[in-house]
Specification:
The chain is 58% helix and 15% strand. With 450 residues, the protein is of the alpha+beta class. Among the domains are: 201-285, Helix Hairpins (Orthogonal Bundle); 293-440, Histidine kinase-like ATPase, C-terminal domain (Heat Shock Protein 90), CATH 3.30.565. A five-stranded mixed beta sheet has the order 6-8-9-11-10, with helices on one face. Strand 1 (81-84) and strand 2 (90-92) form a beta hairpin. The radius of gyration is 48 Å and the shape is elongated. It starts with a helix and ends in a 10-residue tail after the last strand. Mean pLDDT is 78; it is low at 397-404.
Length: 450
């Protein structure tokens, strides 16, 4: 069954059930209202004759014997009352032919209860309840009420069907378009956005779908770019290896030591690139295991500061290290933390000209470790800042692998930082330099479960 039919059927069912309930309650309330009106009209008379009957019952030895003759003597016929015992057998009726018969079931529960010492001794009825004219009027009224309810249910159901069709169209139409859009996406078409018709949940769903389509399209473009960049990065060492080996085979000469060194360098470069891709894939998939421990930060950092100073001296750069506000301990994987720091410092070396300055600073923020690497290099253009941590992305596309790196260093660094539960951000100005800031959370004592 179509969703439109389901919604209309549900609405009509609800209307029908509601109409029937309203009709039943309306008829019951109408009967109660008629009885109340009838008793209010005869209240004085019923109360008076009730006292008379109770007195008779009491002085007659708590018996109704002879009440029919007493009734005629007291002219109850003109009073218009009918008396029955508690089982509904008529004891007095203005028409003697009814005496001894049973009160109709539909009237039995509508009488005035007579009590003596909280004991029911009989039931007193207005004579109008036994009138054929009154009963016919009541039946006609009930039929009229039923007819009115039936008409109301019919027109309400018709209105519900119209409303249901309109409502279902407003719900189903966007869903159908969403289904069509999903089919388009399955065929690789992400360019046509889903129209947004409202600001309700359906509109939110359409907006979310469009955002998802953009993200998927962006991911596909990144994957294509990554495949192209990976092919490009792998092609260079493979080309060198293939060309050198092919030339050697054609000349039928043994490889010289210098040639072996060149080939070995290319193999090392190729191996390093493959390892970087594997590391990044594991980190992004959440499969990389970190061996986090408490590290005495200053002693740990000084172990490779000498290497950084030597690298700066060879590049005619100034290196400044400020650890005065650094925490005594940090909580991280020692191997991965070193990789994070070296990746950021090497990136600063790579994009800072001779005579530039690189500043490394670490400090404690609450329980966390904050450290930054600042350079006075070429800086990053505003349009490149959001892309700087993507795979194979280089701010200067004119640089080759020797001067620009593989383009994976910052992507790996970001993944490592996030694997530690931290974050990394960059602030940069073109021709003034860049500052990369990293936050790594400190060690938290585990909370014991109670």
């Amino acid at each position: 069954m179509r969703l439109t039919s389901k919604i209309s059927l549900i609405l009509v069912t609800v209307v029908l059930v509601t109409g029937v309930l309203i009709g039943v309650l309306c008829i019951e309330n109408t009967n109660d209202a008629l009885d109340e009106y009838l008793y209010e009209t005869h209240e004085v008379m019923l109360n008076e004759w009730a006292r008379t009957f109770v007195t008779y019952y009491t002085y007659n030895g708590e018996s109704w014997d002879g009440v029919d003759s007493i009734g005629r003597m007291m002219n109850l016929q003109q009073a218009g009352v009918v008396l029955s015992n508690l089982h509904g057998r008529i004891l007095y009726h203005y028409d003697v032919n009814y005496i001894g018969t049973q009160v109709p079931q539909e009237i039995y529960s509508r009488g005035y209860i007579l009590r003596v010492d909280n004991q029911v001794i009989g039931i007193l009825y207005p004579a109008a309840l036994f009138s054929d004219t009154f009963m016919q009027l009541e039946q006609d009224f009930v039929k009229s009420a039923i007819g009115a309810v039936a008409k109301g249910v019919f027109f309400t159901s018709l209105f519900a069907i119209i409303i249901g069709m309109g409502l279902s169209f407003n719900i189903v139409h966007p869903v159908r378009e969403l289904t069509t859009a999903v089919k388009r996406m399955a065929k690789g078409n992400f360019e046509e956005p889903l129209p947004i018709y409202s600001t309700d949940e359906i509109g939110d769903l359409s907006r979310s779908f469009n955002m998802m389509a953009q993200e998927i399209e962006h991911g596909i473009e990144l994957r294509k770019q990554m495949m192209a960049d990976t092919s490009h990065e792998l092609r260079t060492p493979l080309t060198v290896l293939a060309s050198k080996l092919e030339f050697t085979l054609e000349q039928n000469k043994p490889l010289e030591t210098e040639d072996v060194v060149v080939l070995y360098d290319e193999v090392i470069r190729l191996k390093g690139l493959v390892n970087e891709l594997q590391d990044l894939s594991k980190l992004e998939a959440g499969h990389a295991m970190l061996d986090k421990t408490l590290i005495r930060f200053r002693d740990y950092f000084e172990d490779f500061t000498v290497l950084l100073e030597a690298e700066a001296e060879s590049r005619s750069m100034q290196l400044e290290v400020n650890l005065e506000q650094a925490p005594e301990y940090c909580y991280a994987d020692p191997k991965r933390l070193k990789q994070i720091i070296l990746n950021l410092v090497n990136n600063a070396f790579r994009y800072t000209p001779e005579g530039g300055k690189i500043t490394i600073e670490a400090r404690q923020e609450g329980n966390d470790l904050m450290f930054s690497v600042q350079d006075t290099g070429m800086g990053i253009a505003p349009e490149d800042v959001d892309k700087i941590f993507e795979r194979f992305y280089r701010t200067d596309r004119s640089r080759d692998r020797e001067s620009g790196g593989s383009g994976l260093g910052l992507a790996i660094t970001k993944a490592l930082v996030e694997a530690h539960g931290g974050w990394i951000k960059v602030a940069s100005k073109v021709n003034e330099g860049s500052t990369f800031t990293v936050m790594l959370p400190g060690w938290q004592e585990p909370v014991e479960e109670k």
